[in-house]
Each structure stands twice: as structure tokens, then as C-alpha cells.
Amino acid sequence: xxxxNFIHTLGATTLGALAIRPIFGNAHSLGESxxxxxxxxxxxxxxxxxxxxxILPKTGTSNAPHNEAYWGVIAxxxxxxxxFINLENGYFSHQPQGTLSYHIDAETTINTQTSHFMRTAxxxxxEEARNAFAGFQGxxxxxxxxxxxxxxxxxxxxxxxxxxxxxxxxxGDQDYGSMVEAFQQTVARWMVRLKVAEVPxxxxxxxxxxxxxxxxxxxxxxxxxxxxxxxxxxxxIPVVAITREAKKINPNxxxxxxxxxxxxxxxxxxxxxxxxxxxxxxxxxxKWLCNPIGAGFLFVKKQNIREIWPLMGDISADRTDIRKxxxxxxxxxxxxxxxxxxxxxxxxxxxxSKYNRLIYLKLLWIGNKQALENFGKGMGILNHPTYQANMNxxxxxxxMDSFKLLSPLLPFxxxxxxxxAALSGYTPTELANTLMSKFGIFTVGIDHPVIxxxxxxxxxxxxxxDCIALNKAFTSLCVDLIPHLEPVKNK
Length: 491
Ligand SMILES: Cc1ncc(COP(=O)(O)O)c(C=O)c1O
Description:
This protein is an alpha/beta fold. The chain has helices spanning 3-12, 17-20, 68-75, 97-113, 115-120, 122-137, 150-160, 177-190, 206-214, 239-249, 270-276, 302-305, 333-337, 339-349, 351-366, 369-379, 385-393, 428-439, 464-485; strands at residues 85-86, 144-147, 168-172, 193-197, 221-227, 254-258, 280-284, 296-300, 403-405, 419-423, 441-442, 444-447, 452-456. The chain folds into two domains: 117-341, Aspartate Aminotransferase, domain 2 (3-Layer(aba) Sandwich); 353-481, Alpha-Beta Complex (Aspartate Aminotransferase, domain 1), CATH 3.90.1150.10. It contains 19 helices and 13 strands. A hairpin with a 4-residue loop joins strand 12 (444-447) and strand 13 (452-456). The structure holds pyridoxal-5'-phosphate (PLP). The site of pyridoxal-5'-phosphate has 11 residues, from helix 7.
């Protein structure tokens, strides 16, 4: 099944059950056994294909989201921190050991070859990475530049746009702080008018979100900035529909997408955003693609490249050449060389099955029975004894008066791994600190004008027991609150 079909069907139904089920067939595509050692792929040409550097489940093991026989083996690829459960994987992703080894080998090679590598092999290495990434996301290589991260990618666009006083830009009220600052600086520098769309935290429909943005568009709107997956809550906004609608209202609007958290997290390729009319997209490869830190991408539609000034001065590349945005000086090429390896790991899992697993982990710690039932039914695994046992092991936190989920749960296509919750009586920091000190679970407190709670982000290195442990921790905190709510006894 094509990823494209998967997400569209998910969007069309609350669950996309029929779309999800065939994914189970992919389990057999993993050819190696669990015993496959994590060897050090060197990247040098060999006559026989190199062994996969990844630890993979035995052939034929079902990749159903609840199956630890599969996902437990995948988790072994990651080195977990000692002494606590990490459920804050939103900052960046740790890399599978196979990717890390490849990265270290690549760095060792550069460190040995020194400037000979930089002067003779660097350009080819970058171009290979460009081709690999563009192919992975269905993009044209000449529309992809590498940066250090999303922040840099989007700053290239925001700072490089030829603003005129009076131009209008629309952003969202839950956009990432660095982008908001970049736009605020633009306002101060160019007298641009900043308009902030209030994105519903728990929307009832796509239409509500689309309206939040499109109702602000005027003939003066020069740029529309959309955060595909909001980092505060994990909400996925309908970027495709918003972009199409925005362009209908004002065809000159430049749509720029922050895809920091959606790349390689949702099954949607960046090409779908491009095809919908997005003019530029920025993302980080060290988040859900699990590439080493320090690699970002910037997509700019070919016809727009000429008009955007590079952040670092460049006159050697043609004005229409995307490479003009890569004038970064000496940089860690090993992080770019590793991209193909990170893609390999991602493909071994499959976008859709990875996404399903992440959603399942989220549902488990929240414990919502209705959502778990819908999900299990849709995947055809509801009656599996393990699925049932996990469901019985968790408390439905949404039934607890003191617990408030700040992330949309349904339809499932409205999010992924990330979810945020608040507990009455606790500030976000107190709650995160309590989860860590009392239960050894690391999360992050979010104290934002719109969202105040604890953000939880499971990853492939997490087990179902990690999420059950968090559910139990929340349950006990909710129960602990009860004495405070009881009437004071007579003396
Ligand atoms: C929505 C969003 N945009 C941008 C960024 C910035 O990413 P980076 O630090 O890789 O530049 C983040 C980081 O978490 C994010 O969540």
C-alpha cells in the first residue's frame, strides 16, 4: 500500500481501519533474524551486499503495534538511558546503534582523510545524500537543500524574503517559539504586520482549523506559516487542505511549512505538501528519521528559489540553484552521509507500521478505552490476548476528573506519538518533576500561553510496559488528589 493512500483514508474516516489492516502483510518483508549482529557498515563498496547493521525481528514476526516480539526487538537497536524511562523523545531522536556506528565510521574516515576528503569527496557525498533524501520523500533533488535543522531552514525563508512595509504574515498561536521570534524580528525590521491564527486545541473538524487560518487572509497576505505537527500537543493540522484553500483565496500567498515533527513520523511524504502548493518546507532529520543531530532539510519550489536571498551570502551558485542556501562553511558531512542509513532503518519498519506503533503507545498511557477499542478493531487485533491484557492493565485517565488531555485523540490522523496532559493541582513543571522523582519517568513540562501541561513522547525505544508504567503513575497521582477533595472531617 502506498503511504499516500494510507493517510488519505485515515483522514476520511475516524480510524481508517480498512486502510491500516493490510499493513500487517509487511511484517514478512523483514528478512533478517534477531540474531543479526549490529555490525559496522563501512559504506565502502563490497562485492557482496553488506549485512544489515540493524537488529531485526525474525522473518514473519507480525508487526502489529502491540506485538513486543516485533517491537521489543526493534527497541533493542536503541541504547536506553540508565535509571529512568525516557518518554520525552520530542526534542530529538536517539539513533539506532547501526546508524550511530555508521556515523562514527564516516566521521573516522573524514578524520583520517582530512582535507583530502573535503576537497575531493565532499561534494559527491552531499549530492548522494540529496538524491537519497529527495527520493525518500518524492521530491526533486534540485529543490532540496541541507541545513543544520528546521530553525535554520525556516530562517532562510523568513529572513530571505523580500518584505515590504505593510506586508502581512499569518502564523499560528502554537507555532514553535524560534519561528515566532523570527517573524517578530521581521516585524521589527520591515514593519510587516503579524496576524496570529487561534488554532483550536481540540478541534471538532478540519474545517474549524482551515477557517482559523483562511479567515485572516487578505490581498496583502504575503506569507502563511503552518506548523504541520504542533510540538506542544502533537496535533497534526490539515496542511494540504489549508494550503489549497489559501491559494484559492490569494494565489500569491507564499506557504511555508514547519515539518520538524511530521517528517518520517506520519506516513505523509513531503511531496504531498509540495503537490498541494506548499512553496517551502523545513524539517529536522534528527527527529523522527533518527539521523544524527545536525541535519535539516529545506525544500523550496524551483520557481521560488530565485527570489529568496540566502542567509549566508552566496554569489557563486546561480540564483536559481538551491545550493546557494548551503553556503555554511566547514560542516559535519558525516551527518549527511548517514542520511541514507537512517532512511534504510525507517524503510525496514515501514512508515505506516511505525506510525501505528507510535499511536498505540500514546493510546496506552492515556488508557482511553474507547480509543483503544476503535484502534484495536481497526487493526483487527482487538481480541488478541495481549491487546486485551494491555487494555485491562491501564486505567482510562480521561475518566479522572483531575486529568485533562490537551491533545486530540480522534480521529487518529489528528496526531502521532506526542500528547500533552494536565493534572489539576500541579503546574507543568511540578508535574514533570513529580513523574521523574516519584516514578522515574522523564517527560517535559510545557508552560505556554495556550498549552500548560506535561508533554509525553514515546518512541521506538519504548515498550508497552513503559507506557503502562506512566498510566499507573498518572493514576496514582489522580487518586492521591482525592483526599484534598474530600470534606474536612469534624474535629
Ligand atoms: C514544531 C517545531 N519546529 C521547529 C523546531 C526546531 O527544530 P530544530 O531544533 O531541529 O531546529 C522544533 C523543535 O522541537 C519543533 O518542534
